Amino acid sequence: MTRTKRMFILDSSVLMHDPAALFRFQEHDVYLPMAVLEELDNSKKGLSEVARNARQVSRFLDELISHHGDKKIESGIALDSISYNGNNTQKPKTGGKLFFQIHEHENPLPITLPGIKGDNSILTATVALQKKFPKREATLVTKDINLRIKARALNIRAEDYFNDQVLDDVNLLPTGISELPAEFWDSHGKQMESWQEEGRTFYSITGPLAETWLPGECLHLDDDSQFQAIVRKRDEENAIIELATNYTNPKNSVWGVGARNLGQNFALNFLMDPEIDFVTLMGNAGTGKTLLTLAAGLAQTLDMNRYREIVMTRVTVPVGEDIGFLPGTEEEKMTPWMGALMDNLEVLTGSEHRGNWEREATNDLLRSKIKIRSVNFMRGRTFVNRYIIIDEAQNLTAKQMKTLITRAGPGTKVVCLGNVAQIDTPYLTETTSGLTYVVDRFKRWEYSGHVTLQRGERSQLADYASEVL
User: CA nearest 36: which of 28, 47, 44, 46?
Assistant: First the structure.
């Protein structure tokens, strides 16, 4: 039984979020109202991600029309006439056609309907197509929540754009930490092998649980043994796990900072491991993401000389009203956005207890080793032997995250920090955030590690506020 071809009317918010949305509807047809083309034209100027995406959509449309030749556009343009691979290795299977609005539709909407003229014209086009093709199921696709509400109020079929959604529910994202059952050693210890390499203890585990573990997964036993280990490799029959370093012990403190809970201990194990190239730390405010990351970076940059310098960046999305242009160089413009960096540096260096001369000398040393960079100027760069910190990564799109991570050269470690419950970027959600995207895509790579920090350690006030507010 063949499926009936559907007709999808795309809003400009979808195309400016994902320029390749044109090619994401398989064998179904895509319709672009004239108001959408006008909005794309109005948004194409500038250096923002939205402007870049609007220009990319225009290039796709131009290429599609060029391949269509002298044929009538009314008959539709085959969407598979040009190749687009995107992040996939194979070209998406698209058997549908692209249609443009070339005639003005009669206005069946209520005359008194309030709202933006462009939105109303898109709704008008959707209603007209639903009447023209009653068996085709014409559906409006938009990321504009208000437009979807207005459409449903008028009994117009409308959907969100889900193709860029990483997971159906953010709760399905792995936390990175798994508690082992109390009888673990009884059921998995019979064929266990253990050995040591360069002071590190490894175990080869065989059993039903070992088959479910992912590389980089953190394991622990909640008993007197306080057993903590990290999965290093896994094949079809067994898994190799390594005993985790105990950073709660003051002797193993990192730049004067020790782990205060289980999650922080596993986080420091990943941050201090030179074989782990990519680390993601998620958690609410006050869980210690930035403090632990900076402490590990300073220890490996200044004490161990493992990295040449620390590079810190974040997307500049304001929480409230924008304060306007900021004076100075790139680093000076980024300084107001790096309050978390400055606050944690004061804690790590103990500068509040030092004299003016000693404080200035420490700040000069740190300034020479910590560089603050803007996301806007990262494209085309290559960082060699750097410790890169991407703060507030939940505000980045999947495309932006790919651009940043692929800047890493030999000997570079990338650490992404964020809280998906605090997203400020328009049209991004917990399930479409770039942070969610990379956590899901890297979960099977043995040179990466992920920990979701659950317990706050900032203060009892901050912990209580996180729970009740």
Answer: 44
Asked if residue 386 lies in contact with residue 310, where contact means CB atoms within 8 angstroms, the answer is: yes
pLDDT attached to residue 91:
45
Question: How many Cα atoms are found within 13 Å in the side-chain-facing hemisphere of 184?
Answer: 16
pLDDT grade for 374, boundaries at 50, 70 and 90? confident
pTM for this prediction: 0.77
The runs of H, that is alpha helices, within 5-103 are: 12-17, 34-43, 49-68
Domains, the chain: 7-159 (3.40.50.1010), 172-468 (3.40.50.300)
User: Quick one: CA dihedral 7, 11, 12, 13, positive or negative?
Assistant: negative
Sign for the CA dihedral angle at 331, 333, 334, 337 comes to positive
Q: Name 30's bridge partners.
A: 8, 98
Residue 379 has which token pair?
Answer: 């494209």
Hey, CA dihedral for 167, 170, 175, 180, is it positive or negative? negative
- Long-range contacts (CB closer than 8 Å, 24 or more residues apart) made by 110-118: 113/150, 113/154, 115/150, 117/35, 118/35, 118/38, 118/39
